[in-house]
Structures are given as C-alpha cells and as structure tokens.
Fold:
Amino acid sequence: MEMEKSVSGNQNLFELTENSLADIRYWTWSELLDALKQCQNLIPVASSSGVIDKYLDSLIGRVASSCETSPCPSTSSADSSGFRLSCDSKSTESFKNSIFRATWWFEDLAAFEPFLIDILAKQMVSRNLDHGILSKFLFYYQKSRFASAKIMDEKCKTMETVIEMLYLLDLSCISFKTLFGMLRITLNLKISKCSRNKLESMIGSLLDQATLDNLLLPSPVGSSYLYDVNLVLRLLKSFISKGACCVPLTRLKKVASLIDLYIAEVAPDPCLKPYKFLALVKSLPESARDSYDAIYHATVMYFEVHSGLCEEEKMKVCSGLKYEKLSTEGCNHLAQNKKFPTKSAGQALITQQVRLKSLLQETNQASPYINSPCSFVETENTGKEDQQIVLYAGKLDLSTENEKLKVHLQGMQCRVLELEKVCRKMQNQMAKMLKSRVSSHNNARSLPRLCS
Structure:
C-alpha cells in the first residue's frame, strides 16, 4: 500500500506503529490483552514482524514482576481476573497476597488459543518463571478450555499443547495427581502418540507417588482383559528407563510394593495371559523386593482361575518366583500346593534344606565359644541311607560376659530342631506326593492295555 513513505511531512503508518510499540510499557493490562487477541487472527504477519514478541515480552514482564513484588499491578484492569482478591482487606493479608501474586493472571490468559499459549509458555520458561506456578496455569488452562470446547478436536489440540508445555518443566514442580487426572481424560481422546508418550513418561518417572486406584485403569475399548496392564508396563518401563541402578532403593521398593498390590488385583482376571502376568512380576529387578510372598499368593490366585494351564505354562509363570526370598511358611505352603508343578514344589523343598544347612553351619561356627562342644549323631531313617542331623547341646559353661551369647545360641539350637522336624515332614509328604503321581501315571498308561 506504499504507506511506508511520508506524505506532506506527516508520519507514515510504519513510523506510527513503531512509535506506538516504543510506548508499550505505558499500555494498560487490558490494552495488552486486546492487542494479543487481535494478533491471534494475524499470527503469521505478527510473528514475522516481531510485533507479537514485543507484546508477549511486555506481558510476561508484568506477570513476573507482580509475582515477585506488588500484588496489585497499577496497569491491571479491575475486572480482568476472577482470581483476584481484595487488596484492601486486612485479614489474612499475607496469605491472600501470596495467592494473588501466583494466580491473578490465570483467567485472562486462559482466553488465548493453544498456539499462542505454546509461544507464551515457552517464553515464560526461558524467562525462568516459577515452574510450579506455570504448571498450575497449564492445568487451569486445560480445564477452562475443556469447559468451553464444542468439538473434540479443540480438546485434543488443547491437551496436546498442555502436555508439550508440561514436558518442558521440572517434574518435581508438577502435581502427580493432576497428571493422572489428565491421563484418565486422554483415554477418551485421540491425541497424538507423541503427546501420549510424553504424558506417560512424566507419570512413569513419578510412579512411586501413585496409589493402587491410580493404576486400576480400564482396558481400551475392544480389549478382553479388565485392566490396562500394557499401560502399567509402559509406566514401569519409564520409571526404570535410566536403569534400576540409577533409581534410589527406597523409591524402587515403594513401587515394588505398589506393583505387588496391582498384580494381586489383576491375577483373578480370566483373560490375563500368562506372559502378561509374568511380565508384571519381572518388570522390576529382584533387589526391589525383600520378600516374594505377595507374588506367591498372587500366583496361587492366578492358578486357581487359570486351571487349564499345562505344566509348561505353569513353570513359566513360576519362573518369576525367587524361592530364596519366600518365607518358611511360603515355601512350606508351595511344597504342598497341588496346583503348582512338581518341579516348583521340589525347588521349594530344596530351598528349605539349604536354609537348614546354612543355619546349622552358623550354629557350628558359634561352637568354639562353648566349653562342651555340640555333637552330631547320624541315624538311619526307615532303612534308607538318608542321614538325619540331630543337634545335641551339651552343658554350657560360659562366663558372665558371654551370657548374651549363651541365650542367643540356645534359641538358635531350638530353632534348628524345629526346622529339622519341618524339613523331615516335608520330605515324607513330597515322597508320598511323587509316589502318588507316578502311580496315577502308570495306571493311566496300563488302562488302554487292559481294555484291549
């Protein structure tokens, strides 16, 4: 339009615009908002000319200064924010001021389109605006836009923008509860795979803050299983993405306790495949669990519901168990549980025997402190060559300073005798069980011959 040239000594339009932008620091808050709203319709032109950058720079500067100093910016319009609190009130003034400084601009900026919020948030991050405040604004923006959105595409675009901006922030400043709330919302939205992966990555990194209710999300439409096990596996993968050795042991054990509860909830699902059950058990390293009793009980429930599994499938499921981390009661119960494969029951018995021998060795190492050494007597058991170890405690003659050692040793000796009885009982039961299975197998093989 050739308006960059002066006419009759008057300033041209370009010069007038430059002068106006030079005085932007004198603009009121409402004037800045109106200018940005108009730029939304001219975003390519405004961006290329640098106009929108000057508007945003001024706006962000005022937000930042108001959060750091005065809660009542003089350029702000009286009705521009529903979050504002009365500056004249004397009651709980410091509390009101802190809330006001953090949130007074939320409602005004929530009226902008997602692409403008994207630019705005990135500039706020570059200006080192508090990440906690910025994350709260993004959550508020998502909620506000969803309330006014008329079509699904608007919601998807808003959610993707919010996720992208949250991904730039420090995770420790983001509310985990709100992140999981967003995850539940996205179950009904077709957001991009990239945005979904980023949201799951953020949640996975904070998985030790989750509860069982957070994880019990329904499976996607069209799936046969009850809960979204694949999602939980992805969250676990994100949690240990840098390696289990990089995660503090306290956090690792907290997540393991949570996953044990989750496995117990999904185990009764008749549609849960063995490899999915095993994937949940093995998703965390062995060091994350001090005891595998919870996993054993969940496996018991799984076998009760999935009674049609073959021995091979059952053994694969049992490969997730760490027998050495089962309690004595757990090993004893497993050895007698007919729903478990024979090899698994045998492994439980072997574990018990190893524990017994280890305990006997510890007791034997303590014997030099005893004046009358313990003796071991070998006896035959029903004509077999098995040796039965019987611990005989001689008369103890210890000095006064070794009285604590005497009490400890006597208790250990009693425990050894108890374990010996339990082990002998389990061996007899195991022998009977094996004999019964072999007999049943032989009868089944001889039946066709008799019939012929």
Observations:
- The CA atoms of residues 371 and 397 lie 6 Å apart.
- Residues 69-91, 369-402 have pLDDT under 50 and may be disordered.
- Residues 17-67+103-197 form one domain.
- The longest strand covers residues 384-392.
